[in-house]
Structure formats: C-alpha cells, structure tokens
Amino acid sequence: MLLIRPLVPADFDAVWPVLRDVVRAQETYALDPEMDRDAGWRLWAETPRATFVAERDGVVLGSYYIKPNAAGPGDHVCNCGYIVAPAARGQGVAGALCAHSLRVGREMGFAAMQFNSVVATNTVAIGLWRKHGFAIVGTLPGAYRHATLGVVDCHVMYRRLDAA
Amino acid sequence: MLLIRPLVPADFDAVWPVLRDVVRAQETYALDPEMDRDAGWRLWAETPRATFVAERDGVVLGSYYIKPNAAGPGDHVCNCGYIVAPAARGQGVAGALCAHSLRVGREMGFAAMQFNSVVATNTVAIGLWRKHGFAIVGTLPGAYRHATLGVVDCHVMYRRLDAA
C-alpha cells in the first residue's frame, strides 16, 4: 500500500540522497550536479507550491514537487519534478506520483502541466508521461549533456488539466 | 548610431519603467505584473550572467539580459530577454540587441539559445527571432493569458550558436 502525503522536514533525510544521486548522475535532470543539501532543500521543498512523498511501510520511496511553471499570465501552467529511490523503481511509484500530481494540480486550479526538459534518452519517463496524457510538444536539439551518452535532445511535454 | 554596452546601475532608472510597463501590459512576458523595482532589478540585472543596454545619443532605448537557461548538464543553452522603449520601437533596436546577444552568447561559450515562452500573438517578435535564425521547436497550447486577447498559445524558440 503506497501512501502519498505532504513532505515534512524529517522526510528530507530520505529524499535528499535520492535527489543528490539523481542530480549527480547527470542523466535526467538539468540541475547543478554539485548541489548541496541546502540547495536541494530550497529547490525541492522550499520554492515549490507543495512537495509530497510516497511511502510504503513507513519507508519513503519517492517524492515530487509542484509549482507554477511561470509567473503572471503564465501562472496557470504548473510544473512538477519526480524522483524515485533506485530500489523502488519499476514498482509503479512514479506513475502513482504523477497521477497524484495531476489531481493536486487540478485542485490547485492549474489549467495545464508542463515538463520543460525531458531528456530524450529517458524513454521510461517519456512512456510514463505519455501514458498519463502528456504529449511531446517540442524538441530542443542537443539541449542536454548526458553523462554517458553525450549531447542529446530534450523534449518539452505538456498536458491540459482542464480537458476531459 | 546605436551603442550596445553593459548595463550600469544608473541605467536602471531608464530600463525599469520600460520593463514595468511591459510586464504590466501582460501581452508578452510571463512575469508577475505587480513586480516592484527591486524584483525587476534582481530579475533583469542581478540574476543574469550579463545585462546590456542599447543607447543612442546617451538615451537608453532598450536592454537585454543573458543567462544559462538551465543548470548542470543543461547550462550550455542560454536564454535572453529583450525590451525596447515604446518610443524606440520599429527602429531596429530589438534586432540589434538580438544580434549582439547571439555574439555574446557564443563568446560566453553557449552552444544554443532558447526562448521558453514566446507568446504566439507576438508576431513581430516571432518574425524577428526567425530572421535571426530561431525556429519554433514547440508550441504550448493555451499557456498564456493575454490581457486583451484571452488565452493564447506560446512557442518555444531555439537556435544553435555553434552551427555555421
């Protein structure tokens, strides 16, 4: 039974190592690989509108944040970031987080959700976002320096939240 | 004779009213329309890698900033924002700023330039960016609430700096 609930500060002891390793790997996120825990906290927990964790049997397996993707006349579009602990991958955690975020985004009044930079080689994520209603609406040629694959494209993915 | 040079703090007396009015108009930028001067300074002059002004006969007519569009494995793509004073529009100032920014972006070692949110109704800007080598690489349906035209699309525009 996977429980998704708001993050509390103590959760970051479990979230940070996952976030740190994902960022260091330089395979999926366009974030500073040398980011320290304080910067990670600001990015993941402080700046966003809300942050959630997924836990099973009291163990945090993943997390996501939700925030406006732009300000003013663009603040009806939200953005989310998701991470899942390596040991918990392939168990539907990311899909559960995404489904939760779509519901929360709607509840917060957002009209659409946008992922700005989905690394084109991250086919597992792309397939999952497609399954959850996202379309690739743009491709940025060579916008990501993958740690092992070199320079690769990024996709912009988008879905409305107000559509049926 | 248009001179483009780095912004100094005193220039912001001329830049801020232009930026403020552009942001308040809610026709082109996805920024907080209630932004105050301090927030404007942070956005336009403090956060970016560099900020320039265009002046003619000692009068500041426009300005642009340049910064990385993402961090870590995405920090080889830059982003710019441009503003031109209403009285100076239609005189090639934006084009001169764009050409300057492409050169500066290359000098700074960026491999590409990306505009994340070009409002689809801003056809003058879109035409100008196309002329300067940018392509529409994606379209975000309904991503902008235009003050007078209602909900409109945004384009993502992109060009390589390292290509011939």
TrEMBL record, chains A, B:
<protein>
    <submittedName>
        <fullName>GNAT family N-acetyltransferase</fullName>
    </submittedName>
</protein>
<dbReference type="Pfam" id="PF00583">
    <property type="entry name" value="Acetyltransf_1"/>
</dbReference>
<keyword id="KW-0808">Transferase</keyword>
<dbReference type="InterPro" id="IPR016181">
    <property type="entry name" value="Acyl_CoA_acyltransferase"/>
</dbReference>
<feature type="domain" description="N-acetyltransferase">
    <location>
        <begin position="2"/>
        <end position="162"/>
    </location>
</feature>
<dbReference type="InterPro" id="IPR052742">
    <property type="entry name" value="Mito_N-acetyltransferase"/>
</dbReference>
<dbReference type="InterPro" id="IPR000182">
    <property type="entry name" value="GNAT_dom"/>
</dbReference>
<dbReference type="GO" id="GO:0016747">
    <property type="term" value="F:acyltransferase activity, transferring groups other than amino-acyl groups"/>
</dbReference>
